[in-house]
DNA sequence: ACCAATAGTGAGACATTGTGTCAATACTGA
DNA sequence: TCAGTATTGACACAATGTCTCACTATTGGT
């Protein structure tokens, strides 16, 4: 087996609290609820999805979390590499929970099953690009799309 | 100079008409105006940008083109590789005019200057991913972000 | 424990972006 | 020229994202 596939180490809500603190962010109740809700997902989820999920469930005791708060918090979590911003096949933005570090994702176009991988083939390319264009290169986005084994049409084995 | 950078061959409106025909699309007046407007751009532009630009200028003679038509046409052009869908640093979708073929883009985060390149470092990676995950891999998206020479802060050469 | 400073919140108005409908229109090939 | 049909555009609507601002809650210092 090559080095491509990452077995993600679990990341906990308390770990994320620590990271928030270290970055100077306050530990607030909405942020904690957002983090916990995000951690329930092992596939990409959209901001609006979380908005819906966090809208007071049957339990009328929970207060609502404002849409703006959710968008803001997701951005913060992404900036700290707790989440990754990914692009879904259709072109829409979503987030996935991630262990920290540089990751890319292989996403099933059908069911959104996601496999993170760490090998990044960009590094050598970047050197060429810098030499050719004189750009300073700060970032890149790479997403790979396909069909997971479950979603592949059965081969017609006559 | 390495092979990374593409000097784009010009693509003309009439060439695009041919491509449309070959794909079974009709040559309509709105499509021609959309194509011509798109060709004026050498940087990424959004669908809404075109909507605005095509909204009858001072010249009251031109009729309006519906928003839906513009979105539809851009998708068609992208599906024929006349345009590429790209993701801007902020995460928003845009299109760039392209010579046909497999391209990626290096985009300036500040001024959106764009350099297309053809070298794609994905191929070997894809083999590993297939072996490791059993996914069928159909597509990928790669964008590189940075600062073009013009937008780089001057080095403080004391 | 208390307090002052201030980061953070949420409601909602609003802006932007994208989709769906459908009668009317304009291409195209025959 | 004409019938068949792909395409249009207006518009309503859905979805997504941004902004504001008075109010609240967290935090570090005392
Ligand atoms: Mn990478
Ligand atoms: Mn490629
Ligand atoms: Zn799948
Ligand atoms: Zn620039």
Question: Largest interface, per-chain counts?
Answer: A-B, 43 and 43 residues
SS-based structural class of chain A? alpha+beta
Instruction: Identify low-pLDDT runs of chain A.
Output: none
Instruction: Describe the strand arrangement of the main beta sheet of chain A, using strand numbers.
Output: 4-3-5
Largest sheet of chain A, in brief, is:
3 strands, mixed
> What name goes with the CATH superfamily of chain A?
Winged helix-like DNA-binding domain superfamily/Winged helix DNA-binding domain
| DSSP helical segment count of chain A | 5
Q: Count the strands of chain A?
A: 5
Just name the CATH architecture of chain A.
Orthogonal Bundle
**CATH fold-level name of chain A:** Arc Repressor Mutant, subunit A
Would you state the CATH class of chain A? Mainly Alpha
Q: How far is the N terminus from the C terminus of chain A?
A: 31 Å
The fraction of residues assigned to DSSP E strands of chain A is: 15-25%
Q: What do the pLDDT scores of chain A average to?
A: 86
Question: Can you offer a commentary on this structure?
Answer:
Two copies of one chain form a homodimer. Chain A is of the alpha+beta class. Chain A is 34% helix and 20% strand. Chain A is built from five helices and five strands, in the order H-H-H-H-E-E-E-E-H-E. Chain A has helices at residues 13-22, 29-39, 47-54, 67-79, 122-133; strands at residues 83-87, 93-97, 104-108, 114-117, 136-147. A three-stranded mixed β-sheet of chain A has the order 4-3-5, covered by helices on one side. The longest helix of chain A is centred in the middle third of the chain and has 13 residues, at 67-79. Chain A binds chain B through residues 1-5, 85, 87, 89, 91, 93, 106, 108-109, 115, 117, 119, 121-122, 124-126, 128-129, 131-149, 152, and chain B through 1-5, 85, 87, 89, 91, 93, 106, 108-109, 115, 117, 119, 121-122, 124-126, 128-129, 131-149, 152. Strand 5 of chain A pairs antiparallel with strand 5 of chain B, so a sheet runs across the interface. Bound molecules: manganese (II) ion (2 copies) and zinc ion (2 copies). One zinc ion binds next to loops of chain B. Chain B binds a DNA duplex (30 and 30 nucleotides) through helix 2, helix 3 and helix 4.
